[in-house]
Design goal:
- The chain is an alpha+beta fold.
- It has a domain of 98 residues.
- The chain is 33% helix and 20% strand.
- The protein contains seven helices and 15 strands.
- The chain has a five-stranded antiparallel β-sheet with strand order 1-6-7-15-5, with no helix packed on it. Strands 10-9-8-11-12 form a five-stranded mixed β-sheet.
- Helix 2 packs antiparallel against helix 3 and helix 3 crosses helix 6.
- Bound molecules: zinc ion.
- The site of zinc ion (ZN) has 6 residues, from loops.
- Zinc ion binds next to loops.
């Protein structure tokens, strides 16, 4: 209902921002299911580590970490592969890390996943690409199975499992990288990429493989949690072709040009130059905003985790445990 209201408001331009797509059809065959229990529905985490759910009973859980506080709700998700996840909403306080003197600008790209303003390059593991051939074969197997047959159902699970494995390892890698960057830097600035736009171009596969949006979201909520500064720099800012020494804006560069020389002298590596500019722009924006706010814009809750309620005083986050089912 809300989806339709937003869609029509977007059409008539009552609603600001990006155009909202019409609500998507939810397939009956969609094999991802979720259910949320609140405190009122009397779920409980038992002393023996099990989870008691109303009408279901006691469920054994393999905890990914201990709950820092009493959870206010739990969402149980069954994914396409048939694995069950329990995602808890927990009130926590931030855990600021000791301050460090390093600030960083990050250029997200395709040749490298990220290039830092100090010249460090981080290569993207091409999880999807590597798994693509296997996936293709599994998809073909699937397409040859008769509709409604048991063998088809089995093939569907195989495809889903291959996708899930890729997604899991990508998320894991991004968590490690984002934690390291936040720990080592007092302020982190990234370019506000138009991932939606890029995803529709021919670069789509690489873009989605790279998973920038999920990564910058991680940086954002980890920055809030650990007392670091995080900022997004306007995506129309010419980070690539502006000289980081003299500020001159040079000719548009085709993607194939990896380095260029500014009339003022220096030879710039395309990506490192961009990262340095992002750092400078992020710092400038923060200085402009100073006085107006002592903290970065808002305390964000991770967008992609289930059941998040942002709260003014504390950040809320979910803790996931994998059920042994
Ligand atoms: Zn220059």
């Amino acid at each position: 209902m809300t989806a339709y209201r937003n869609f029509f408001a977007s059409l008539s331009e009552e609603r600001k921002g990006r155009k909202v797509a019409p609500p998507r059809f939810r397939s009956r065959k969609d094999n991802r299911q979720a259910i949320r229990f609140t405190r009122n529905s009397r779920f409980a985490v038992l002393d023996n580590g099990r989870l008691r759910l109303p009408k279901i009973g006691e469920v054994p859980v393999r905890w990914s970490r201990t709950l820092p506080a009493e959870p206010s709700s739990v969402t149980v998700i069954k994914d396409a592969v048939g694995r069950y996840f329990a995602s808890f909403v927990v009130q926590t306080t931030d855990e600021p890390l000791p301050p460090v003197g390093f600030e960083v600008g990050i250029d997200l790209g395709l040749t490298h996943f990220a290039v830092l303003s100090n010249g460090k390059r981080i290569t993207a593991p091409k999880f999807l690409r590597r798994a693509a051939r296997k996936l293709k074969r599994l998809q073909q197997d699937l397409s040859r199975k008769q509709r409604g047959s048991n063998n088809r159902a089995k093939a569907v699970v195989k495809v889903a499992r291959a996708h899930a494995r890729v997604a899991d390892s990508r998320r894991d890698w991004q968590h490690k990288l984002s934690t390291r960057i936040i720990r080592d830097s007092q302020a982190v600035y990234v370019e506000d990429l138009c991932v939606v736009g890029l995803g529709r171009t021919r670069l789509a596969k690489s873009v989605h493989d790279a998973g920038w949006a999920a990564f910058t979201d991680m940086l954002e909520y980890k920055a809030a949690r650990y007392g670091r500064t995080f900022g997004r720099v306007d995506r129309f800012f010419p980070s690539t072709r502006m000289c980081s020494d003299c500020g001159r804006i040079n000719e548009k560069l085709p993607l194939s040009v990896r380095s260029w020389t500014c009339p003022c002298g220096p030879v710039h590596d395309r990506d490192v130059n961009a990262a340095i500019n992002i750092l400078a722009a992020g710092r400038a924006e923060r200085l402009n905003a100073c006085g107006a706010q002592a903290r970065p814009a808002s305390v964000p809750a991770p967008r992609r985790e289930a059941g998040i309620r942002p709260n003014a005083a504390c950040s809320t986050r979910s803790v996931e445990g994998t059920s042994a089912l």
